[in-house]
Amino acid sequence: MSSTTGLSVLSVVATALQVLAVLAGAPLVVGGMRQVRARLEGRAGGGIGQPWRDLRKQMRKQQITPQGTTVVFGLAPAVVAGSTLLIAAIVPLIALGSPLDPAADLFGVVGLLFLGTVALTLAGLDTGTAFGGMGSSREITIAALVEPTILLAVFALSVPGHSANLAAIVSATANHPGQLVSPGSLLAFVALAIVVTAEAGRLPVDNPSTHLELTMIHEAMVLEYAGPKLALVEWASGMRLTVMLALVANLFLPWGIAGAQPSVLAVPIGLVAITVKVAALAGVLATCEVFLAKLRYFRIPELLAGSFLLALLAVTASYFFATPTN
Amino acid sequence: MSWIGKIRRVGRIVEPADEAPEATAAPPTGVTGSLQLRHVDCGSCNGCELEISGAFSSVYDAERFGARVVASPRHADGLLATGVVTRNMQQPLFNTLNSIPEPRVVIAVGDCAINGGAFAKGYGVVGSVADVIPVDVEVPGCPPTPQQIITALRTVTGR
Amino acid sequence: MTTALDDSPTAPVLDEDLRTARRARGQAILSGGLTAALGVVGTALGLSAIFGEPRHLRIGWLLPLVGVIFDLGPLGGFFVAATGAVSIAVGIYAVGYAQREHWARFPLVMLPLFVAAMLLVPAAGSVTTFLLAWELMAAASLVLVLSEHNREAVRSAGAFYAVMTQLGFAAILLALVVLSAAGGDAFATIAAHTGGISSGTRTAVFLLTLMGFGSKAGLLPLHAWLPRAHPEAPSPVSALMSAAMVNMGIYGFIRIDLQILGPGPHWWGLTLMIFGSVSAVFGVLQASVSTDLKRLLAYSTTENMGLITLALGTATLLSSYGAQQVAAMAMTAALLLILSHAAFKTLGFLAAGSVLAATGLRDLDKLGGLARRMPGTTVMFGIAALGASGLPLGAGFVGEWLLLQSLIHSPHGDNTLLALMMPLSVGAVALTTGLGIAAMVKAFGVGFLARPRSAAAEAAREAPASMLTGMTLAAAACAVFAVAPVLFGPVLKQVLAALPTVGGDAAGPALGGFLRLPGIAGSMAPGLIAVALVIAVLLALGLGRWGARHRPDAVVVPLWACGADSLSSKMQYTATSFAEPLQRVFDNVLQPETDVEVTHFAESQYLVEKVTYKTLLADPVEQRLYAPVVRAVTSWAQWVRRAHPGSVHLYLAYGALGLLIVLVIAR
Amino acid sequence: MTQATYNGVLNLAAGAFLLAAVLIVWRRELRAIVVLLAWQGIALAAIPVTEGIYQDDAALITVGVVVLLLRAVALPLLLIRAVGTEPQERRESTPLVNTTASLMITAALTVLAYAVTRPIIALDPSPATRAVPAAFAVILIAVFVMVSRRHAVSQAVGFMMLDNGIAATAFLITAGVPLIVELGASLDVMFAVLVLGLLTGHMRRTFGGTDLDQLRELRG
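Output (structure tokens, whole complex):
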């Protein structure tokens, strides 16, 4: 199990590479999804690099501090981005044996994710605008309802590997691919897919490209951010999406990931593998979004209740279907 | 699902882009190909609004040149003003401009915004946009076609 | 502490006032100092009992026949130390608070007494002593709750509390009498003769203690006194009650049902788990929709006691199935949760108290903007809220993590009960955490950030140094729990070793710098996470510097009001509106009573003059369960009242009649 | 077919079977519900086919094919026609229990099913019997759907889910029922659906809607 492996230089390198890849790749993932959508709508689209251009532009703009906001508003973007970077350093994306892997298991990662959410909701309240409070209230409600599903899905995933540590889960799946076709992991996958879209603020829960404040959830919280801070927020939300997609990809399709003691060749292979997986998942997500409309806000609990049910079934299934053969 | 077939049949409906016009105003931050716009209707007849929405539609697709309409002026670096400035919209126009972080451009769309147009002598009218705030780019026409609007935007995005 | 007098609100003008002020300060310092000193003594005694050998003390003359027996083992020491630690912070805080709030002499005297009584309860070594200390604690707390008795709410809360705590005491009395009838007076002798206690007796004792201790710990459905009494009490007292006194209920469970009578049958653990999870979910649900700062904290106490009970139940159930190692994990989780809850709940109530002292407000809908006016208090409450929300870097995180681990790693084998209970419990814990985050974001974000929603909040002033000092101690404790629970490793080990019936003899989780679970590839390092997160945030700040040299100078601009000139603070979201979605989602459980009434102008029904929106969120359990009982009791009392016409002769006749009856019977 | 793949496919079929039932509770559009029912039929047919291939038993495979034709093609088509003739209401407008609550109830029912079928698994813990809880859960869910839905078509769907569940249980416990029994069962289901179709048509002509609450008006 990875929690007992000593550090190797290459695994440290792989971890650093993970962080850099998420940093550099997040805007591309967002741009790619926008591009897929544009093509399916018959448009040409701004190109995959558009978010990067926007980031560079925003970074060169004026720092604006709205009157009456406190340090919470100023620090929140950094906290969101920082927690996401930390997650990127913990989870096994390129290689298994991250030096931080024993420091936090899947529960810890979920906690860090929610830390970012809480920071942004507090910032939304801190502005003291109507829209900020509205966005925070909606976001925190969804987060509260998402949490049970996530933890139950974690439970279901931790049953085969007898551990909630990410490296253990991933390696267990890699060693017994037979478990992938078990109902437990399939139900868990569907449940996780739903909550990831909810937590990343994608359709049908939230429409990231809406212009109407009253229909916003995530956007409403960040209406007051401008310039560099806005750039950081956008970057961070892109990174959250990327990390979550990559994590889901590796939890269910761990192939190509480098081992706890990676060889020189295994690291680039892992990088390519995770890039391909994330690109594919993002493309599928964007394609599905074209066919979806945003749910009414008070229909979202139905969706999340459904995902909770699936997660519960996943746990029960992985308890009862636990066939000793594989 | 029949939609997939429809998408395949329709394919790309966007008009081919002609070559980029020479940039009149340098892009606000020196970064080409990225322009977020906040639109303010100062008292327009909504003709220009229709054409603007046309410019961002699937057929003209201004987004491919990096232009995007955003909800909050804090996110924007351009002000898209349409129509004559009425008394009630004068102050909001000021406020919107002031809450756009520097550097910023102001684009006046349509004859009304440029010189008052048909409503120049109206009783509730303060004047053209230029009478209230400094204007960087003007898009003449009553209303201007989406093509004209896109060309104007491209002179700012430089793409 | 001397600076407390500088910003004590009564600026002495005449020397008469000066003298009274000086006397008040002296009394406050005396009472608070005494409380803190008791706390220090308690902590020292508790730690020595945990690490040294158990202490015995018998005072024969103090009580006829049985005498008073004190017997402080590791378990009792644990609770004594926790109570003592809470009292230190509260005592120091009370010095400033008592002066600001002009406490009368009575509460000043009762505060140290209350602490002393609480310290005696876990130290009690015999049934009689335990009951004595327990009743003393209840009485002292009741008096303190009533110390602002000129307010109607306080009086009703006091009545509620008095009735319920006495009923609970009756249940405990019955249970312990049954127990001592079976095994003797001293706990030690009972523990020695548990073999002779019939299963029927065990069941009776368990059910009765479940009632008695459950009501003291604020578990459903006996929680109703808690959200009434805790908010109405003066804040230092609220802190003592909510952070220390409720623990006594948990102590009772552990001492009587787990340590002396344990290991119980499966259904004991099952019952505890069900009561615990229901209380946790219900409590946090009420907390997430309540708009009263202290009421919110009180409900969060119910929530945390529920989580602790759930952990206790898990430990009992697992050890009854022989899974000692995981049971030890659950027990460690329970102990850690007790400590961390004591820390952040003390801090929460003390911070809420200084808000109350500065603004006179508890209503979140009227607060706001305190971050600029009371930065110290704001930081303190932020730490408490982070701890209560169970997020990483929060005090509660490690405990909840351990609880979850023990739930998901229970060896279900082919056991249906475990295979059903564990997922459901995980769901309950998860829902509790999620809603807890919402509740705490509301409390902190609406109450302390944004702009003030009332003149009182506008005029808030920072608390005096002594209050801040008290809070700082609690905050430091929170930080330790969040980052380095390893410091408590030895303590937990000792206490666990004293609980062989719930897996104490198995190897518990190792609380090193890395928190490792025995036999499972599961580990966590809160300290490392904290450091890494700080580094990552600094990195992100560095990212934000990118392209800075191209930027125009930073400016401060008014808020974006959608083109309008300014936003009034009335346009902000309030606590009510913030919690409205949750209230709607869970309206089957909460059953809010809302009504909107629109009044039109006389001229035309199309012109709306005003719209009033009323929403009442009463405690549904209280409504459904308590109201009928109260009604029945009152009607019965009305009937009895007819026998009291007020004539002395009749009363004397009653007495004589009673005497005759007694004589006839006892003939 | 190896042991492992047999396990995998069988579990997968059972999981899909259960998932379809859950989604039927979740969705409200009648058309979508019927499509899901067809998917459930496919999952149901996969069970005997898998067992047939595993034990190379031709009869079982035939049963599977028949089941596929009936449950996944014929009956859904009938129902689709019933939906198609609906004038306006293509969706379960107001179920008696709201969606969130019914999902929670479904969860409870499933857990219950898992609990009560433990003895059956204990009797003979083979991969087939391990999948029985899913089938049993579908039976319970089907009953719940019939209880909680207003629309005649969703009633029919519930009825057919019930029969699917029973058939699946039969396939899993006894390694395949005789062909004739299965045919008989499926045929009378078919008749039931036809009758329901007639009934709905009649109701629509009478009340202009197939909301079962309106049946109350039939009482003189």
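The longest strand of chain B covers residues 35-41.
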